[in-house]
Amino acid sequence: MRPLSILDRSLVRQGQSPAAALRDTVRFARRAEELGYHRFWVSEHHSVPGVAGSAPTVLAAAVAAATSRIRVGTGGVMLPNHRPMVVAEQFGVLESLYPGRVDMGLGRSVAFTGGIRKALGHGREAADGFPAQVAELLGFFTGDQDAYPGVHALPAEGLRPQVFVLAMRSGADLAAALGLPLVIGGAAPAEAAARYRAAFRPSDWAATPYVMVAANVTVGETAERAALLQLPEAWATARSRVRGAFPPLRPPGEILRMELPERERALLEEARKGQISGTGDEVAARLRDLVTTTGADEVLVTMNTYDLDDRLDSYRRLAALAW
Questions:
Q1: Is the per-residue pLDDT at 20 higher than 80?
Q2: Cα–Cα distance between 267 and 238 in angstroms, integer?
Q3: What does the domain layout of the chain look like in residue ranges?
Q4: Which CATH architecture has domain 4-215+286-319?
Q5: With the CA atoms of 103, 245, 118 and 174 taken in that order, what torsion angle do they form, in degrees rounded to the nearest 10?
Q6: Would the pTM of this model clear 0.90, i.e. be above it?
């Protein structure tokens, strides 16, 4: 059995304000700690009406302040949107205030639209510089950077939050080259994990390869109930691909009554295929298969539904599984 961790994106429910969604995230982190989850991560999304998580280091600080043992971090900070020194300073503050509990998950995605990228001050090409940005960021922690003589990212210098690279395209290769732990999901995770382990070069950040596999997982009293709970997020994902905006989550019953366009219905079914859901026994078997095929050292779970009590029940059932 591998450690279980949580990625929460602070999704907004129908009729809810973004502020309320953020407060729900902090309350949820407390419950995750009580249930024994290993890490609690938050994410970075900009100008998405259905997603309140836009400033992950700020939200991670609130989560860390509200908890006492669970590791807290980002899944992730999208480094092309930021200057590496500023990110180093932010995580230096987090690690100083909550030593031994901070994870710095880094991604290479840029904003979804040209308007948002313009507002952030970084174009699509900024993602191409991700390897150099990661190396520069790490240099501010080690004090081993020559680009800015006499410049120190305080209080980061000398500190060591745990660093992860979120795999996307060449992300697995970069993590291997720099000797960093890897987070993978989506298609062909086993292939990416194998390539990463084969190319891994030990570093001061990690002596051995470490793979965390991300998955959308729901556990219900019945398989039908679990599938129903997954419907709101799958629907919102499908609608975002058709209409360009991720909407607030709606109740499953309301979605079932919708007359969806053919393309949106097809995308909804596609979104549901990539999820793990079922009874406790069914999910435990799927998780065992996932760990066996990828050799994962840890599983990062995300699951959102309309009703917060339903979400918590799924995570409670998941935490109780023996797999």
A1: yes
A2: 5
A3: 4-215+286-319
A4: Alpha-Beta Barrel (3.20)
A5: 40
A6: yes
